[in-house]
């Protein structure tokens, strides 16, 4: 198993580049199943989740060829012959559940294992199943598998209201609706940039869609779809993570340049909160300059669905607040149990207390390096950020979580002045 060893205190300087979005790449890959012929996707990050989902898709007879250096993946479903996504692979990643909508659309039937993924919080698939039923599918549960079938071999289309709005359910239902006989309507659809970019690809493939980026999405099913070449969008969560890294570890006299990100995908709520910390944001050609202030100001935030403050940035924001002079709080409204990083940060001297669905943070205390353990993707990167500004050495264990969503993070940070190394270790070795 691997861990990251970080020797804190070195300033972040130079440039960081934002990779392609993992959360968008996965539904783009699922959409490739809907057509015969090669679908070429570019700006695809080299991540464990991309590899896992490639293997899930290959089970169907679809060929998948990934060039990690060129960040290019080609999928060809001409040889599609199996409408199943097995437990052994789906258990590793929740996004594999996108196979339900894709397989129902492509084959009129699907057998998909209930999903796995990060070990935090209840994230039920009820909305996905109700959506498939609304489009005409018969759905049963069989020994941990969802077994769905479209009578007559093709979904009819229908109307579904999502309560609450859900990115995953919106994408899954849109996949299923793309080849339905009639029109499908998704009320209270998610409007996250991931969803908008995914819908744009479906349009390019030949799906007639109205209301993209709004809360009501109209999808007219097509008889067939065409192969396309399509570019993935940047990862907005990595972008926000790098901005926070620059604010806590940068220096006032040396701005950090971040390239490849799309500011509009972060949303005005995050950008406004970030600038209220005193951090200076300025455009620089195709990049963004982040200048750390002499003293960071505390800014309390409340997570919400887009365009609200991203829940995927709240763990990182906690580190930013720990570096401020003053008190603040982070209120989590999207996922109620997303605070597993807090006990590990407390071990590092961060004065943060969980009260219900909020974290209260007393900033300005010295963060101390120690041994900490990753519990999920975003918690992992918050520990890395803490290690960057801690005194002494921090060992972040179980970084397989981190590898699911951040492409070569230690190489990027090392190239920008951070003393960080990946080290293999034995999880069960006795202490020396």
What does this structure look like?
By secondary structure, the chain is α/β, with parallel strands linked by helices. It has two domains: 2-19 and 235-424, Enolpyruvate transferase domain (UDP-n-acetylglucosamine1-carboxyvinyl-transferase, Chain, Alpha-beta prism), CATH 3.65.10.10; 22-231, UDP-n-acetylglucosamine1-carboxyvinyl-transferase, Chain (Alpha-beta prism), CATH 3.65.10.10. Helix content is 30%, strand content 24%. It has 14 helices and 24 strands. A four-stranded mixed sheet has the order 22-23-1-24. Strands 2-15-17-16 form a four-stranded mixed sheet, covered by helices on one side. Helix 12 (377-389) links the parallel strand 22 (371-373) and strand 23 (393-397). The protein is globular, with a radius of gyration of 22 Å.
What is the structure about, briefly put?
The chain contains 14 helices and 24 strands.
Quaternary state of this entry equals single chain
- Our measurement of the CA-to-CA distance between the termini, rounded to an integer number of angstroms, reads 18 Å
User: What structural class should be given to the helix and strand makeup?
Assistant: alpha/beta
Tell me which CATH architecture of the largest domain applies here: Alpha-beta prism
Sheet of most strands: 4 strands, mixed
CATH superfamily of the largest domain: Enolpyruvate transferase domain
Task: Determine the mean pLDDT.
Answer: 94
Spatial extent as radius of gyration: 22 Å
- CATH fold-level label of the largest domain: UDP-n-acetylglucosamine1-carboxyvinyl-transferase, Chain
